[in-house]
Amino acid sequence: MKQLIVSIALILFAFPIWVEAQSAYYDVRQGNEKYLENDYQSAEELFRESIRKDPKPLESAYNLGNALYRQGEYEEAVNYFSAAAKKAKDEQTKAKAYHNLGNALLKNQKLEESINAYKKALLNNPKDEESRYNLAYAQQQLKQQEQQQQEKQDQQQDQENQEDKEEQEQENQEQKNQEEQEQEQENQEQSEEEKQDQQQQQEKQQQQQQQQVSREDAERILEALNEKEKEVQEKLKKKKGKAVKIDIEKDW
After folding, report:
1. How far is CA 154 from the centre of its chain?
2. 85-139: pLDDT as tens digits
3. Which of 2, 71, 121, 133 is the most exposed place for a label (fewest CB within 10 A)?
């Protein structure tokens, strides 16, 4: 009797869980119908409700990822495709989950991650030509992206080099201008000094010339005086040597 009571208790305990699981599968079926009708938002709501009731089935995560993907919610879709891939037991299901995961990552421009997802899809299903094509496309996009980034870096480096060159040229020109100004100022100062020296030299020469003229004048005056003195002496000599006539007073 005791064992019977325990069994009944277990059944009563498990019944709500079973009902909840059945309700979750019902939501999945309803969501699938909305998805086929292209009502992706309603399908999303039903798949979310299914996961809330029972998060274990991978169908809910996989289908919710599809509904989000169709609405352009690629980043959130990545999470559910990744969860579905982890839950999947057989290779075919894993391949589909990784394929869709690669698509969502590709839409997000996460090229390297999408390439890894496509590779995992092909590991589980080597005959999946769609995954192979998408893998090649993602690899090509990554190569172009790397080339563009390299070109952008090269252009940026060229621009920086050109800016450095222009800056150096400007500095050189400024230095040259400064040196020219300093040289011009030095030449000007030197020219002024030369002018001052020349002026002083001219003034000195004029003073010397004036002194020379004054000396010559003095010599001429002295010579003239000497000549005058000679004349006077000559006259005196002549007067001393000549008889002086004395007038005799006559008688009346």
Report:
1. 13
2. 999 999 999 999 999 999 999 999 999 999 999 999 999 999 999 999 999 999 9
3. 2
The Cα diameter of the chain in Å comes to 226
**CA atoms of 131 and 100, how far apart (whole Å):** 9
Read out DSSP for 23-81?
A: HHHHHHHHHHHHHHTT-HHHHHHHHHHHHHH----HHHHHHHHHHHHHTT-HHHHHHHH
User: Cα–chain-centroid distance for residue 63?
Assistant: 47
Average pLDDT, the chain: 81
| Distant-in-sequence, close-in-space partners of 41: CB < 8 Å, separation ≥ 6 | 67, 71
The DSSP letter of residue 242 is S
Q: Topology of domain 22-87, per CATH?
A: 1.25.40
- Tell me the one-letter amino acid at 17: I
Express each pLDDT in 171-228 by its tens digit: 888 888 888 888 888 777 777 777 787 788 877 777 766 666 566 776 777 777 777 7
pLDDT value at 11 more than 90:
no
Q: What amino acid is encoded at 84 in this protein? A: A
**Strand, coil or helix: 211:** helix
Token pair for 22: 């059945």
Q: How many Å apart are CA 80 and CA 96, to the nearest integer?
A: 13
| Cα three-residue angle 180-186-188, rounded to 5 degrees | 100
What residue spans define the domains of the chain?
22-87, 91-150
Phi-psi region of 189 (alpha: psi -120 to 50; beta: other; left: phi over 0): alpha
**Length of the chain in terms of residues written:** 252
